[in-house]
Structures are given as C-alpha cells and as structure tokens.
Design brief:
alpha/beta; FAD/NAD(P)-binding domain; 3 domains; 5-stranded parallel beta sheet
Amino acid sequence: MKVLIVGNNVAGTTLAKSLRDADTGVEVELFTDENLQYYPRPKLIDLLSGAVQEKDMPFYPMDWYEKNRLKLHLSSRVEKVDRAQKEILVNGNWIVYDKLALAVGSSSFVPPIKGLPKKKVFTLRTIEDARRIREAATGSKHVIVIGGGLLGLESARAVCSGFPHLSVTILEYAEHILMRQLDHPGADILQKWIENTGARIVTRAESEEVLGTDAATGVRLKDGRVVEGDMVIVSAGTRSNLALAKDAGLAVNKGIVVDSSLRTSDPDIFAIGDVTEFNGQVWAMIPPALDQARVAAKKILGQEAPEYKGTIPSNTLKVVGLDLTSIGAVRSQHEPPEPGFEEIRTTTQDGRVYKKFVLKDNKMIGAILLGTKKEAAKVTKIIKEGQPIEGIKERLSDPDFSFS
C-alpha cells in the first residue's frame, strides 16, 4: 500500500510515524511546501526570542526519515488532487496513491482591518515569518500585538525578551486575555503578571485601522483611540487551509468534514489536524492532532482501532513564565452558572496561584490551574476519565489541597 501525506506538521509527522510503527511494509511519502523538515510551531516563539537557532528547529534530523523509510519531499507544494485517478499533482508531476491523508493545517487569520497590507505588519506561522519579525524588530521601538490569545501573549513575550529595547502593547478585542483558556479572575491575575514584566495590555480594544502611509505607525481602535507603534504583529487566530479539499470536491465546512475514522467524503482520503472538522468542531490544537493521527493510521491500514470521539481541549504550558493548565469546560456561558453546574475557585494568599474547578453531576468537567503545574496530570486524568469526585469536593476550595 502507498500512503501519501500532504503536510509535514505535527499531525502529518505523527501519522507517518504511526503508520511505520504499525506496518513495516507500507510505503509512506510526505509533502511540504516548506524547505525544512517538521518543526514544532510553538518553537517559533523561542526562535523569535533568540533562545534557539534555526539549526535547532527540526524535531527529527533528516536521517530519521531515511532510517524509518519515510520519503520526505521538501519545497513540494501539492497543487491538485485527482480523486478519480487517485493522483496528486506536485511540481508538475502526478503521483499515484492508494490512500491520501490531508494534514494541510491552517493559516494565520488577518481580520478585515483597514490600511492593510503595509510594511512592518506581520503574522507568525513559519520560520520565514520569524526571520522577518526579528529583522524588523532590530530597528523598531514599539511593537503592537493584535490579539491576546496564547500566540499573541507568547509573541509579545518573545519580542520583549529578545529585543529589550522594544516596548510592547497587546490589544485584545474581548473583555479579557486568553478567552478560550481562562475565566475573568484568572485572566486578571495573568494580566497583572504580564504588565509587571513591562508590557501593556488593552482589553475591549477592537482594531479598526493600521495607520501609516507606507509602513505601520500605529493602530486606530473602533472607539477612536489610537495606539502608536512602528511595528505590528497580528495574532488573531487561524483558519483551516481548505483550498485543496474544495478543489477536489470534498465536503468542507469550517474544516474538512470527517467521520469517526477520520475519513473525508472520499473513503480513500483522510484528514487530520488543524484542517479537520469532526462533529462540527475544529480544534486547531496539538492534542487533537496527535489523537487523530494515531486513529487514522490504524484506519488507513485496515487495522482494529477505536473510533475517534473527539478530544477534550487541554493545554499545559507556560505563558509569559507562568504555568497554566486549562482543560475541558473552563468558562461558563452564564453567570451565575447554569443549574447543574458548580464552580469552585481558590487563590493562594500571595495571589500567585489560582485554581478553578467546574463540576457537573458529581464529576469534574473543567479546570484551570494558573501559577502551578503540580496537580496538572492528576486533574487532567480525573476529567478525561470522568472519575467521580466524592470525598474531595469539599476540599477543592483549599488552595493547599493536593490530589495525591
């Protein structure tokens, strides 16, 4: 069997490795339009800050692909999929497949802001993006980051640490930063921590226009306020790369629509990672990409495997130096919480550690741990396995309570 994988990101690479682990005879080829083998996107922050060099970016050396008999095609953009002939067009050549996996990822989303494009306005998605930002930062004085999500905050941290001469302002259109991972009290703690490092955060700040004739000189907000700056990084989320799938006539919505086997509307084509939509949801996170790749590998090979049922969203990482775990349903849509839901919050006396637990039907369905990672693995296990919390519920409000 010959399996072609379009995309050499975390989803595509994990799929290739999982295929090889499960079947030593299957032919596997990967195609990427970048000129470098797989590197973790989060590592771009370290490259931007100067903490790592470009030579340190690849996750695997080139000989890893050779040893595992995984044929990697660099600088090889897939232009078209011919489903009838089961071929893909790459650099003018048609290559046949038995099974095809689309791991084409997503691209940075730039909102419809007036005044674009302009010089010194960037997004961060590739090594080339990081190069351009570093070059521009050297001669800049004030960078504006549009977006207070994970990537926006980490981009701000990276330019602060890599270029100490720069001042930084973060613009977040919502009521607080990290809307997907934090509630308001947790966001307040994190914002104070970030502002103590020197960055400025403006919330409820919807960007309307990037000012300047040729290059950026600032951002005008919809309420009329103007934030001056000579460099802008737009970090407003991502959108799935759907052009290839649309052109091939596959079913798409927000992402490429798949079933519980990660099959698309064509039974010989699978989709995994940021580009994938399952049960109406596009995750665009690393844990779902890993889960989907492992399930898809078995399904592609016709081996026994559990069906994909979705992934509980979870992040355990450092944000501007603070440990953060956010898993499951962390934010209520209603204040106070809807009937049947309960929220327990606790903060240490020094205000450095914040915990929140969301409960329903005597089970924990979401949690935030900010400023600590000691309990992250145990809390994640409780939520993912749906363990009852009888016996510990009353103790969750104690900031010093341990799950051990």
